Amino acid sequence: MKDTETRAPDLEHKPEAVLSLLEEDQLFVAKQKAHLGRATLSRGTRILMWCLRGYVILMLVVIVVEVVRSLHGGGAGQ
Amino acid sequence: MAETTHVHSSPVITHEDVDRARDRLALAKARAPGARLGWLRLFWLLIGPGILVFLGENDAPSMLSYSATGSKFGIGFFIPFVLVTFLMGYVVQEMTVRLGAVTHRGHAELIFDRFGKFWGWFAMTDLAIGNFLTLVTEFIGVRAGLSFFGIPPVVAVGGSLVIVLGAVLSHRYWTWERIVLGLAIFNALFIPAALFAHPAWGAIGRAFLTWSPMPAGGLLKPDTLLIIVADIGATVTPWMLFFQQSAVADKGLQPRDIRGGRMDTLLGTLLAAVFGIAAIVATAPLFAKGIDASDYQAAQFAQALQPLIGRAGAALFALGIFEAGLVAAITISTSSAYAFGEVARKPHSLNRSFREGRGFYGILISSVVVAGALVLIPGAPLEYIILIVNVIAVLAMPPALLFLVLLSNDPKVVAEHTSSPLANVVIIAVTVVLVLAGLAFGVTTLFPNLLGGGGGG
């Protein structure tokens, strides 16, 4: 807290003023200790998440193919 | 929303909280009845994350993608196309304003909380890989932009590292934000560069109205698709979601500031769209002269433009590429640091001192130093790397958008500030467009003749 004392003397010694300016869950300690909890996902949402994950992996393979081709001078990017 | 935590019935107040309260106090004074020029002061205080995220996204790879666009296709289809991609970007980024202002938490933290570690680590892996590769390309831009002026790569990269590190020395979000905003506004250098190209205003107007001329060979030609995907990637990328939400939380915005946050985001959107289109216009003379600039680097663009738009115009273009890389290096490294701190549940605020935020600043500093060092390795196909990094950003975006839609429609997260049906329709459309663009890119890459586009350009 040493830095605080030198940098914010107006509010450093007035915790009640800090609390009045910030929302309760805006305090660092509150954010550290409180969690929102897991969302309940529908079956459709879970399937969509897996499909999009598969899409990313598939596309990464495409990128690798594109890069390998371009390194050999035959790709679209060259 | 999160429950309040007290320690021995008295809340623990940190340095970070005090600095954030000072920012809230300034806002309260601007909102006070009878405050002189209150609305103007309020606007000044609330702008920041939205402008920074969009001008940060107008980074070296993005501006070089726009330059490749202008030099390859001239003024036509891509002028309105780029504007539409930015408007899509606004709809996406507005959601992060609501999420950050209501929850006071970053995007990574919310994903881990709501979807668990399994999906959280997937998202973080996408972000970490994308951010680091993009960071490398920012230093490619820095190096290439300054090489136009004969500045050696080591000096260009080293000097930029000093600026990036200098911006965080204040240990104060507000000061950092103003410094980076001051640097980011130099993205406007592309406007005078475009004016030096003596643009055909009639052709620009016709392009906006008719989306023509269309690219030769159609939109499904592989090199045209690569540019389309790269231009989309120049506007909507995962790091933007993580950065803006974390910055909104670090700035201390609250639900009553959401309207101001939207204005900030809209202003950033419009500025970035104008500057991006200016880069297309500035490089359009290369297309008119039939100069093939498909594998140009920044300095080569500037050198090729010099006979066409003059030494001053070319110098402005090169400086613009340098600035674009520098500002993005700051915002992207900060995005990585925020995400790391949120996941590790360590202090992650620019209001923290180095001692208090060791992990946060450690990630920020180490990522820029390693990325800067990598681009000093000679012989890499830099322009091609830049285009591919933009493509990777697009491909990683759909899962990130799904998390964003789920979070921004979750009443347990954003209370009454859930997304409007129109915003949901737009973001679903954006996701579908991104997936289709990615699939079309994949098909034309694996089977170049299947869609009738012919081979690579």
Secondary-structure topology with pairs:
The complex is a heterodimer of chains A (78) and B (457).
Chain A: H1 2-7, H2 9-12, H3 15-21, H4 28-33, H5 43-71
Chain B: H1 15-31, H2 38-46, H3 49-57, H4 60-73, H5 78-103, H6 107-147, H7 153-167, H8 173-184, H9 190-196, H10 201-210, H11 222-233, H12 238-251, H13 258-288, H14 298-344, H15 358-374, H16 382-395, H17 397-408, H18 411-414, H19 421-446
What does this structure look like?
- The complex is a heterodimer of chains A (78) and B (457).
- The longest helix of chain A has 29 residues.
- In chain A, 23% of the residues are buried.
- By secondary structure, chain A is an all-alpha fold.
- The N terminus of chain A is likely disordered.
- Chain A is built from five helices and no strands.
- Chain A has two domains: 37 residues, no CATH class; 40 residues, no CATH class.
- In chain A, 67% of the residues lie in helices and 0% in strands.
- In chain B, helix 4 crosses helix 16 and helix 6 packs antiparallel against helix 14.
- The N terminus of chain B is likely disordered.
- Helix content of chain B is 74%, strand content 0%.
- The N and C termini of chain B lie far apart (52 Å).
- Chain B is mainly alpha-helical.
- Chain B has 19 helices and no strands.
- Chains A and B meet through helix 1, helix 2, helix 3, helix 4 and helix 5 of A and helix 1, helix 6, helix 11, helix 16 and helix 17 of B.
